[in-house]
Design a protein that fits this description.
single chain, alpha+beta, five-stranded antiparallel β-sheet, 27 helices
């Protein structure tokens, strides 16, 4: 039989570190009072109800009692540790919570201290030593209750949720008493080194006025142990100077504190002491500056992120991300559905009523009742009839010349055969036209399903991006506060061109100044996208990254003489905040009919581009829809979609005359070869790409303008000599020149559309 082995549970590194820190706290708390009274009991009591292992905590408490250098102090601590460790273990064994009765146990645990601890008494207290010990025991009881709340908040709530003022006060009390023990145990230089390191770290982390109360807490141990309030002023000064230079980096803050510290030592007479004292004190300030300066930026960023989660409300963002993720998943599912619909409509049908089927029908209907049917079948003339049907399919109909000599001699009713064959071919052609129309409709529906699927997929991807916390929110809040603009909420999400900043501010805020301050804080040019009133005193301002360029437009037009409407129509459309589209459509002919087809073309294009449908789908769909319209109604098109961040222009030309890009260095020609939209079932537009720079002009013209110049060479020569200053003047100048060359009368509709890229202000 295998003997059971004994295994010792090895604590995890985190648990071991937690108990080591607890032991350090015990030691320094025992140095907080002059006669080494065990204030560590308060921390020991708190640890038992905050998840620490009772035996390990008890052993640490007993070991820390060695600070009193007395066997009686050790015996007192041992008695208290055994009492409480056993009580906690028994209650855990019974699975019971220790309720209000623990206050009784807490009072009982002070008896060993009162009876055993070697206390000689303080001269300032005018009563017996035993009563002084009772007073200290009562103080320990009070500290135990306060430390329990503070330790619980520090372990289970800090950096997880916002702490209450009472919890912060309890944690501060623990820190003050522990700091007093550090000061008395290690000396003033050691305390300076520790406290200044913590102060500089706090300033680098929060970078706001929260560092001032933290500095006060760090100064209080010096006040308690030195009997002076001067450290309060000194540490407040250190924190203020460090915050003032926090924007210039950790080294600048550290040097400011170092200079202030050196100046603060003048009244204390430090520089008249021994070299060892001077060196030790100076090192206590220089070392914190070096330590904070050498901290990795990644560690600081991680600490700021942790602090940001602690300070901000996380649930709204979590709920928002969850909803966005759910919407994105649904949209992606719907996108997949439309992809399936596209596949279903894209399936090709097999050929119906081919040559063999038509031949069989002709034999079954016309030849079946013929007296010579048996003779023809015996001599194999069915192949001759199939050949006749094949010729009819190719030509559209058959005539006497299509009859072979053998079939003409054999068939006694050749005219009837030709009539029956042509009748079948006419039905066949009608069937083919119906089938082709159905196929065209299916292709159109398939392309539309494809476009909708692409749109939904893009939205799904966009919606699935989660909103995370941004360090820039805290930076922006400080910058706005420094500029006198107080924001209760700031929300930053996205990056690059998708950067969006939302904040609540007074409705009377100067928008230009707001954009300038926010842009400087986030090192990104920003512009107001939307302002939403929330109340009489609050509005939501939404800022987005400002595009690299802005655009100005100009148009000049003249309709054909004698016509009420122009066949030219144009459009300037803002696709989104970073792209715009310009288009010029020239309907074939002039007057109302041309105006209608041109206007319809642009309306369709605008609707599709607003929906952000893929360009290839837009063009093919619009072409088919126009092709279904009345005969001889076609439309020439110039279209350009321009990116305001890069100046990249995607240009589509369909049956349109040349266009131009005018810049200081050169005149570029935009030219394509394709038939007008609607003329063929499938268009092959000329697609171009061009990059526009600052102060470049794009010029689009209808054929009425280009024809007035006589040739492209004359137009090129004329434009090469222009030095336009704004797009409206350019459009009017070109139109006036075209009219002048046409004798002052417009023989066709004339339109000039110009756009200029400008550097964003």
């Amino acid at each position: 039989m295998k003997k059971p082995s004994l295994r010792l549970a090895v604590p995890s590194p985190a648990v071991a570190a937690k108990h080591i820190l607890l032991l350090v706290g015990f030691v320094f708390l025992n140095f907080a009072l002059p006669e080494r009274e065990p204030l560590s009991f308060a921390l020991y009591y708190a640890s038992l109800f905050c998840g620490f292992q009772p035996v390990a905590a008890g052993v640490g408490y007993v070991l820390a009692s060695a600070a009193a250098l007395s066997w009686r102090a050790l015996l007192s601590a041992l008695t208290q540790a055994v009492l409480f460790s056993l009580l906690v273990l028994v209650y855990r064994r019974l699975r019971r919570n220790m309720g209000m009765e623990r206050l009784g146990y807490l009072l009982a645990a002070q008896i060993p201290f009162v009876l055993l601890f070697p206390h000689t008494g303080y001269e300032l207290l005018p009563f017996a030593v035993i009563w002084q010990k009772c007073l200290i025991a009562a103080f320990c009881v009070l500290l135990s209750v306060l430390f329990e709340g503070g330790l619980h908040a520090l372990i289970h709530r800090a950096f997880r949720c916002r702490l209450s003022a009472g919890q912060l006060a309890e944690i501060a009390l623990m820190g003050i008493l522990t700091g007093a023990g550090v000061r008395l145990a290690l000396g003033i230089p050691a305390y300076y080194a520790i406290s200044l390191t913590l102060l500089l770290f706090c300033v680098a982390l929060v970078r706001n006025a929260s560092a001032l109360p933290f500095a006060v807490v760090l100064a209080l141990p010096l006040c308690l142990t030195g009997g002076s309030l001067l450290p309060l002023a000194e540490y407040a000064l250190y924190a203020s100077l460090a915050l003032l230079l926090a924007g210039y980096g950790r080294i600048a803050s550290g040097l400011a504190v170092l200079i202030a510290f050196l100046a603060a030592q003048l009244p204390s007479g430090l520089y008249g002491g021994t070299p060892w004292e001077i060196s030790l004190t100076l090192a206590s300030c220089v070392l914190p500056v070096i330590v904070i300066a050498l901290l990795p930026e990644r560690a600081m960023a991680r600490a700021r992120e942790l602090l940001l989660y602690y300070r901000e409300h996380t649930l709204p963002r979590i709920a928002l991300n969850r909803n966005r993720r759910a919407v994105g998943e649904r949209l992606y599912e719907v996108s997949t559905l439309f992809r399936e619909i596209e596949g279903a409509f894209s399936e090709e049908e097999g050929e119906v009523n081919g040559t063999k089927q038509l031949t069989d029908r002709l034999l079954d209907t016309f030849c079946a009742d013929c007296p010579g049917n048996a003779r023809c079948s015996k001599q194999g003339y069915e192949a001759q009839i199939e050949r006749l049907v094949e010729i009819g399919r190719a030509k559209g109909q058959v005539t006497l010349v299509d009859l072979s000599a053998e079939l003409s001699a054999m068939c006694g009713n050749a005219a009837g055969l030709l009539f029956a064959c042509n009748k079948l071919l006419a039905g066949y052609r009608n069937r083919i036209r119906e089938l082709e129309s159905a196929r065209e409709s299916r292709r159109l529906l398939a392309e539309q399903a494809h476009g909708v699927s692409e749109i939904l997929r893009d939205i799904a991807v966009e919606q699935s991006e989660e909103f995370s916390f941004s360090e820039g929110e805290e930076t922006l809040k400080r910058a706005l506060s420094a500029a006198g603009m107080l924001s209760s909420e700031i929300f930053i999400y996205g990056e690059g061109t998708a950067l969006t900043v939302s904040m609540t501010l007074s409705p009377t805020v100067n928008v230009a100044r707001l954009c300038a301050v926010a842009g400087a804080a986030l090192t990104t040019p920003l512009a107001l996208s939307e302002k939403i009133p929330l109340s009489a005193t609050r509005s939501c301002y939404i800022l987005r990254r400002k595009p690299e360029f802005d655009a100005a437009f100009g148009v000049a037009s003249r309709r054909k003489e004698g016509e009420a409407l122009s066949g030219d129509t144009y459009s300037v459309l803002k696709i989104d905040e970073r792209r715009f589209m310009i288009a010029l459509s020239d309907g074939m002919g002039s007057g109302e009919a041309a105006h209608t087809i041109s206007d319809r073309t642009l309306s369709l294009l605008e609707s599709f581009y607003k929906a952000k449908m893929p360009s290839e789908t837009v063009l093919s769909t619009v072409n088919r829809l126009i092709a279904y319209s009345a005969e001889e109604q076609f439309s020439c098109l110039d279209l350009a979609a321009v990116d305001l961040d890069t100046g990249e222009a995607d240009i589509v030309k369909i049956g349109s005359p040349v266009g131009f890009i005018l810049s200081d260095e050169e005149l570029r020609i935009l030219e394509g070869e394709s038939l007008p939209m609607g003329m063929l079932d499938a268009i092959h537009p000329a697609t171009l790409q061009a990059r526009m720079g600052e102060n470049d002009f794009m010029l689009l013209m209808s054929d009425g303008v280009t024809e007035a110049f006589g040739s492209s060479d004359e137009l090129y020569t004329y434009l090469s000599g222009l030095r336009p200053c704004n797009p409206q003047a350019l459009a009017e100048t070109v139109l006036d020149q075209a009219l002048s060359r046409a004798g002052g009368e417009a023989e066709d509709d004339m339109t000039v559309l110009a756009v200029r890229l400008l550097k964003s202000a």
